[in-house]
Amino acid sequence: MTSPDIPEPEGRPIVIGAGVAGLSAALALAEAGLRPLVLEADASGPGGRFAGRPPVVFEQSGRSWSFPAEHGVHGLWEHYRNLRGLLEHHSIRPPLIRADRQDWVYGRHNGVFRAEVGRRLQRSFLPAPFHYLALLANPRFLAMLGIGGILRVPWVGITLLTMLAVDPMREGESLAGRQVRELLFGWPPQLHAFAAALSRSGLATGPGDAPLGGFIALYRFYSLLRRDAIGHDYIAGDPGEHVIDPMAAAIERLGGRVVSGVRATGIERTETGAWEVRCETVGSPDHPGLPSGPLIAPEVILATDAPGARALLEAAPALAGDTAGLRWTPGQANAVVRLWFSGRPRDGGESGMFGGDFVLDNFFWLHRLQPAFIEWSRATGGSAAEAHIYGPPRLLAESDAALLGMAVRDFSHAFPELRGTRVHVHLQRNPPTHTLFSIGTTHQHLGVQTPWQGLFCCGDWVRDEAPPLFLERACVTGLKAAGAVLTARGLPAPAVAAYPRPEPVAALLEWLLRGIRRAMIAVLQRR
């Protein structure tokens, strides 16, 4: 990526933020010949939450080992058609390892129950949404539930069916003030913990704080409507090296520029209708080339995280009135723990979720997913794991030593065969930029199109009818933001791929239940 020797854009669009959303937008703009200028505040390079971090290095048996330490293990889900298509179109082919098995590990009263759930759901002979019944064919899962839990399974099924009647993305319903815990009322403790783990892994917070609309959207796209939706691949290596850097290089080959170490500090509309972007260097104050005045561009795409976009917009006096009523998606902090052991766990899934008495939320066996860890495991016979802690805030406020102690305790509890085999531990705290996804109406929640002409937004927090979350949402909104710029200039917008329809049984039930819901609402409104 280029150094911050930034010329005036001279008609170039400016993209603020070089995560997946910003780079997706910039790629589409560059391919159309608009030569975008991308500004990234992080002096270490583009990527945002998809970038790499300084490696973890330690000595063992007289040899120095170095391991990547990205924001967290990343996966490309089966139906990420736009991100996969964009990468393939630009000949970017990251190494992938196919997900096989995902375990559910539940701790209760010093006992640990474990059952495989991922493969069973994906390969169930029952159509969606009844594929969840395949879990009941697993004796381990039944033993975990117990008689009381089994008796309450029908109520859980009814709750899942109600999610077919609500499509928060398409309807634009905020479900404001409603939280996931309302949906889980009456669930047996084991399945309540399972849903809570999904909430923490997907929304970075527990049921007490997770927005109901975001949880329903998450559950519908990634599991409820199709059996194959749970299928995904892990990126086998540093995503910065295999995805972000090639995307940035492609932008520059097409005439655009990606500049790291320059933070946008303010935006304002000029009298001519263009946009003024004020910026500053990050890091060394002697960075050469920072323009003496602001950058001027006909269009600006905000591709920062939600807190960053909010700060920029609320700091603009001319925009303050329009931003006063907006509802902002908060950013969530989290912690990533990595552990190395001299032994290996018993056979099980390459990843999984914790619930019940555990502090950790999920785990990934890195010696089965990442080349550096695979090499280390082959050389030493050991294993390595990554686990995430999504809160609550009072837990993340604990000291590093306390969190590491809890993580080691949890792994010893869940995998007793690894007790006494720990070689090394590492804690990484990620800033509060993980999106707590929620749904808002067009008047509450910023979409790709904003109230201001020539200003567009993209990111995994942006309101849009597209059903996915996470990386795919960032890519889709990036493509749509670029499309809005191109359309305004009379140029064709990039194509956005559609997603697979629900399986036939799920589609029929969705149609029936949505019809019943609409009829009930109409009756209540006439009273």
Question: In summary, what is this structure?
Answer:
The protein is of the alpha/beta class.
Topology, pairings included?
Layout: E1 14-16, H1 20-31, E2 37-40, E3 56-60, E4 63-67, E5 75-77, H2 81-89, E6 96-98, E7 102-108, E8 111-116, H3 118-122, H4 139-151, H5 153-164, H6 168-171, H7 180-183, H8 189-203, H9 212-224, E9 232-235, H10 239-253, E10 257-260, E11 262-269, E12 275-281, E13 295-297, E14 300-302, H11 306-314, H12 320-323, E15 331-341, E16 351-356, E17 362-365, H13 371-380, E18 383-389, H14 393-396, H15 400-414, E19 422-435, E20 455-457, H16 470-488, H17 504-526
Parallel strand pairs: 1-2, 1-14, 2-10, 7-16, 14-20
Antiparallel strand pairs: 3-4, 5-9, 6-9, 7-8, 11-12, 12-13, 15-18, 15-19, 16-17, 17-18
